[in-house]
């Protein structure tokens, strides 16, 4: 016992001595695994499915939108589908089911997709791009750059949050705290920005929803007529209060969304965005003609996201003015990253 006490005292003294400190670097240690990018990415987004899906910080309006679709549809199917099946067969019910699935799929695609987030850059890249000192403070005025787009000059503004000159038509969304390519607007009903990568899904959502509402309204009217049994139409309507309220509800929703669809079709026709329309920003350089405008909106292949949020984070840290700046990027090949950020207005005319 006496020898064990001496040995324990010796080990305790050696562990606190400078010699042990010199040996610590030689000790083998397992490297710390780097977590996925989404866990530390500095934005207001909420990430789902391990970083493979994302949405904005607003949840209440998304839940309201889902309830506005699911509750009336479920009540209609519960109360009227049996009679419709008996009188008209399975086809009308199958079309109604297919329609609501198309609406929910387009909504999920627009709500959970990366709208075109531009990666934030390093302090070194910031110095090279701005020509300013290495640390550009939030109060420093950085003059916009001139970018040539289809023969016309466009001002590329500097974003102090993302530390980059935004590409033409990119805007920093204050709700999601990201710079988004070809920013259209932030949609609270989807809980996400609408930008270059999910604009087509947004158009599908606002177009299929009023079509479904119109179809269901016609089915409700047919249900009232089939249940009249030779009675006067007013008496039949009085005996089907749910169908009447349902027709009024879907008519109001369809009128509003058909108007919104027409508004966005006009934007596509003119090659503009909602942000540019509301800010009265003239965009003649982006009007490529009716055919190309609609082709870019509906037929162009989807551009891959510039950030893989579910992969391990490529991370560098810079200490500046009491803050820790983290750098996140899609990879080491700057040329590939710039290609991912390319706006469709800068593509060659033959694409």
What does this structure look like?
With 351 residues, the chain is of the alpha+beta class. It is 47% helix and 12% strand. It is elongated and about 75 Å long.
Write the layout of secondary structure elements.
Elements: H1 2-15, H2 18-23, E1 46-48, E2 53-55, H3 60-88, H4 91-112, H5 123-130, E3 145-149, E4 152-156, E5 158-159, E6 164-165, E7 171-173, E8 178-180, E9 185-187, E10 192-194, H6 199-226, H7 233-238, H8 241-270, H9 274-278, H10 290-298, E11 316-320, E12 323-327, H11 334-340
Antiparallel strand pairs: 1-2, 3-4, 5-6, 7-8, 9-10, 11-12
Helix pairs in contact: 3-4, 3-6, 4-6, 6-8
What key attributes describe this structure?
351 residues; two-stranded antiparallel ribbon; alpha+beta; disordered C terminus; 11 helices; two-stranded antiparallel sheet
Element-level helix/strand string: HHEEHHHEEEEEEEEHHHHHEEH
* Distance linking N and C termini: 85 Å
Name the structural class. Answer: alpha+beta
Largest sheet geometry: 2 strands, antiparallel
How many helices? The count is: 11
Query: Would you report the number of β strands?
Result: 12
Helical proportion?
40-55%
Radius of gyration: 29 Å
Sheet-strand content, in percent, reads 5-15%
Anisotropy-based shape: elongated
> Looking across the biggest beta sheet, what order are the strands in?
1-2
- Low-confidence segments, given as residue ranges, are 21-32, 315-351
> Average pLDDT value?
77
């Amino acid at each position: 016992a006496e020898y064990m006490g001496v040995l324990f005292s010796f080990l305790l003294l050696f562990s606190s001595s400078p010699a042990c400190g010199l040996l610590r670097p030689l000790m083998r240690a397992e490297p710390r695994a780097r977590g996925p990018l989404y866990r530390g990415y500095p934005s207001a987004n909420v990430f789902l499915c391990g970083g493979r899906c994302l949405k904005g910080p607003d949840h209440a309006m998304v839940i309201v939108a889902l309830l506005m679709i699911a509750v009336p549809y479920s009540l209609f199917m519960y109360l009227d589908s049996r009679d419709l099946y008996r009188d008209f067969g399975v086809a009308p019910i199958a079309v109604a089911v297919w329609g609501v699935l198309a609406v929910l799929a387009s909504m999920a695609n627009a709500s959970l997709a990366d709208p075109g987030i531009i990666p934030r850059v390093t302090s070194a890249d910031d110095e090279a791009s701005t020509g300013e000192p290495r640390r550009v403070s939030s109060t420093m005025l950085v003059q916009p750059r001139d970018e040539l787009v289809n023969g016309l000059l466009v001002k590329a503004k500097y974003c102090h949050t993302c530390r980059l000159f935004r590409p033409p038509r990119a805007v920093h969304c204050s709700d999601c705290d990201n710079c988004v390519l070809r920013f259209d607007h932030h949609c609270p009903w989807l809980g996400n920005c609408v930008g270059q990568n999910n604009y087509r899904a947004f158009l599908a959502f606002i177009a299929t929803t009023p079509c479904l509402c119109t179809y269901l309204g016609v089915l409700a009217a047919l249900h009232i007529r089939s249940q009249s049994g030779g009675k006067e139409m007013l008496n039949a309507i009085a005996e089907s209060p749910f169908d009447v309220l349902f027709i009024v509800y879907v008519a109001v929703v369809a009128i509003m969304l058909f108007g919104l669809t027409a508004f966005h079709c006009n934007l596509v026709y003119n090659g503009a965005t909602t942000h540019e329309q509301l800010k009265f920003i003239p965009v003649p350089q982006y009007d490529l003609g009716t055919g190309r405008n609609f082709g870019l909106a509906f037929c162009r292949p989807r551009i891959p996201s510039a950030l893989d949020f579910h992969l391990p984070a490529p991370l560098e840290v810079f200490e500046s003015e009491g803050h820790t700046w983290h750098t996140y990027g899609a990879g080491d090949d700057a040329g590939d990253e710039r290609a991912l950020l390319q706006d469709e207005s800068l593509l060659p005319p033959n694409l």
